Amino acid sequence: MIELDAVTKTFPGAPTASVNAVSMVIPEGETVALIGPSGCGKTTTLRMINRLIEPTAGRIRVAGHDVTAGDPVTLRRTIGYVIQNVGLFPHMTVAENIAAVPRLLGWDAKRTDARVDEMLHLVGLDPAMRTRRPAALSGGQRQRVGVARALAADPPVMLMDEPFGAIDPIARTRLQDEFKAILRRVRKTVVMVTHDMEEALRMADRIAIMRNGELLQFDTPATILTSPADPFVDAFLGPDRAYRRLGLLTVDNLMTPASGTPGPALPSGTTLREALSTLITARADTARIVAPDGTVLGDLSRAAILAA
Amino acid sequence: MILLDALSWIGSHPAEFAAALQQHLLMSAISLAIGLLIAIPLAVLVLPSRLGAGLTVGLVNAVRTIPSLAILAAALPILGIGIVPSIVALVVLAVPPILINSLIGLREIDPDLIDAATGIGMRRAQILWRIRLPLAAPSIFGGIRTAAVQVIAGATLASFIGGGGLGDFITAGIALMDYSRLLVGAVPIALLAIGTELGMAALERRLFLEKTA
Amino acid sequence: MRWAPNHLPDIALALWQHLLLVTVSVSIALVFALIAGIWSAHRPRAYAAILFLTGILFVVPSLAMFALLIPILGLGFKPAIVGLTSYCLLILTRNVVLGLRAVSPDIADAALGLGYGPARRLIEIELPIALPFIVAGLRVAIVTVIGVATVAAYINAGGLGTIIFAGIDQRYPEKIMIGGGLTALMAITADLLLSRAERALRGRTA
Q: Is residue A154 within 8 Å of residue A188, measured between CB atoms?
């Protein structure tokens, strides 16, 4: 759906390319995280997709159209854009902010109004927020409005640049989960820049690891965690990558038929990471997996988790 | 053309021109000096009292809304015509910017510094001379700069109340419909004003920018 | 108070002329300031040059400025307007630039990324945010021009200065007070109205 074909960017006067012949294909409806150390070129790559930065070489295709040619302004109205500090327009109300792109596209007032309400509902904001100004909102609320604004014109593609960077860590996890659910519901193709590995693992279907302008690995989280492409990726994932991987799998993947062995009860859908933690705390070897109504679905042993 | 006519007029009336220029400069310098001597002590005086400072600033702002011409004209019935009423009026013009900038400069000083100075045993007078005034100096100088420009402009208008100065050539030029006479007054005044502004800006840079570097 | 009550029409005329002088000159200056400000807000060298030039125009005393213009424009309304306009170019241009520079880079980036073209971004995002600063500049400009415009009476441009000059020529203190007092009143009123407007605007975008 989004195709980067040997995309390169060399800034004038720079000795090396900031982005060096990066190629990747992002399937429709997937969320891809661009991650890497500072200066790796992830933000530059993102900003080339909506041509806030013009590529020096290579092509970018969205839904088959070459976006590197043509008018960048009209292109941007078809791509949702969310940045770290949101950039809400301070002189406009929440409703006017969300209505920004529809107005640019010439939607009529009724349609725009209905859409604003729809977006407020989608991002979990009270409709009474319509008339508030950005200065009166909390950081989390502002970020929600930012996402609503990006989605208002129903673009097929969303670009997000460290969207949760400015949110406090406690609210961040909750927002990440909520947004993951929202993005699932609206089924957009999303490219997200982040420096937080946890965030990438949590939110992305695929992760692209970059370094010094090169794309090192582009795979699903599980594959990256089990088979890092090179020593740098391995080090970047951190020494607890095995532990992280356990956070990706659930108890349902590994359970064996119930045998009546006693042990702590774990609800279906719990991650292996949590399951292991529970078993250690309870000093038990086996857990029983239960459905919401209480029926036992199966067993899970500590050994099985460690061997996963 | 008229500029050349103006220059030739100056050439043939050097004494008259020099006298007017001197009068203009004298008026300006004296007024500025007196203004300084009134405004800065006044600022220091009202600094500790919020009420006093508030009233003074209010009064000064009210005076500022009165046009310079009216202030010069107002000196007329009280002090008659000539250089004395002109200087008095110009002092009234010079005091507000210096006073307000001095107050702001003295106010903005970090209270922690004053606290530290008091703590090491400095007296109020010492704190004033060694800490407050030096730190407020850039702001005070900014006020003097503004006042200088105001005063030179005001001195131009002193011609209307018989104060002399380069403004006389402009009024004569208009009365006689003599364009070259107009320029004999206007061009030197413009150059004087621009020169003063540039000169004070340079002085400000030398005095203050190096200190903070 | 012997003269004023019997000459209200004359006073009214002077007041009207004065208002005209102020509004026309400030309006023209605002147009120039917007053009110059928008162009130089993100071009530091151009801005420095503009500040220098408008600074010179500001510093030249009003009577001298009018006198320089008389050979070209004659006496009356025209040289007065040109002189008064040049006088407030500095403050207005400076505040336009200050206001435009107050638009944070994030807002500018978001506007660009959402698909605002340069013209719409300027009109719908940047200028509204800059508005409180522009109004602050207008406030200072109007108050100062109200004062300076009194001198324009001497070059036959009319205004409240005519009353003041009559007071000087005729040794008539009442006229000096009326002329000076009304000018001050106009300045105070303008200042109050515009500071209210400025506060209201700042509250909107704070």
A: no
The two tokens of residue A139 are 């950081």
* pLDDT per position as a tens digit, B36-51: 999 999 998 888 888 8
Alpha-carbon gap, residue C38 to C126, rounded angstroms: 10
B89 contacts in C (CB within 8 Å)? Answer: none
**One-letter amino acid of A175:** L
A93, two tokens: 């109300």
> Cα separation of C127 and C103, whole Å?
9
Tell me if A75 and C112 make a contact (CB, 8 A cut-off): no
pTM, whole model, 2 decimals? 0.81
Report how far residue A140's alpha carbon sits from residue A144's, in angstroms, rounded to the nearest whole number.
6
Q: Please indicate if any CB of chain A lies within 8 Å of the CB of C109.
A: yes
> Tokens for A216?
């090192």
Query: Is residue B44 exposed (0-12), middle (13-18) or buried (19+ Cβ within 10 Å)?
Result: middle
Q: Tell me which fold the domain B2-212 belongs to.
A: MetI-like fold (1.10.3720)
B213: confidence class by pLDDT, cuts 50, 70, 90 = very low
Say which of C106, C115, C206 has its CB closest to residue A76.
Answer: C115
- Return the CATH class of domain A251-307: alpha beta
Query: Which of B63, B65, B191, B197 is most worth mutating to test chain C (most C CB atoms within 10 A of its CB)?
Result: B65
Instruction: Report the distance separating Cα A210 and Cα A46, nearest Å.
Output: 12
Residue ranges and CATH numbers for the domains of chain C are 8-205 (1.10.3720.10)
Structure tokens at A252: 């349902």
Residue B53 contacts by C-beta under 8 Å, 6 or more apart in sequence? B46, B47, B103
Residues in CB range of A43: below 8 A, 6 or more apart: A161, A193
C-alpha span between B197 and C55 (Å, rounded): 9
C-alpha span between A204 and A106 (Å, rounded): 33
Instruction: Give residue C206's pLDDT.
Output: 55
- Measured at the CA of C103, the angle between CA A18 and CA C132, to 5 degrees, comes to 175
Residue A275 CB partners (closer than 8 Å, separation 6+): A251, A266, A287, A300, A305
Region label for A135, one of left (φ > 0), alpha (ψ between -120 and 50) or beta (otherwise): alpha
Distance of alpha carbon A149 from alpha carbon A98, whole angstroms: 4
Yes or no: say if B64 and B5 are a contact pair by the CB < 8 Å rule: no
Q: How many helices (H) and strands (E) does chain B have?
A: 11, 0
Q: Do B65 and C143 touch (CB under 8 A)?
A: yes
Does A206 have pLDDT greater than 90? Answer: yes
Which superfamily does A2-240 belong to? P-loop containing nucleotide triphosphate hydrolases (3.40.50.300)
Of C60, C62, C167, the CB nearest to B194: C60
Q: Are A33 and A208 in contact (CB under 8 A)?
A: yes
What is the H or E stretch that residue C177 is in?
Answer: helix C173-205
CB A101 within 8 A of CB A77: yes
Rounded average pLDDT over A251-274: 80
User: pLDDT digit string (tens) for A73-90?
Assistant: 999 999 999 998 888 998
Q: Which residue of B lies nearest to C73 if distances are taken between CA atoms?
A: B179
Kindly list the residues from chain B whose CB atom is less than 8 angstroms away from the CB atom of residue C155.
Answer: 174
- Coil, strand or helix at A129: helix
Residue B4, classified by CB atoms within 10 Å of its CB into exposed (0-12), middle (13-18) or buried (19+), is: exposed
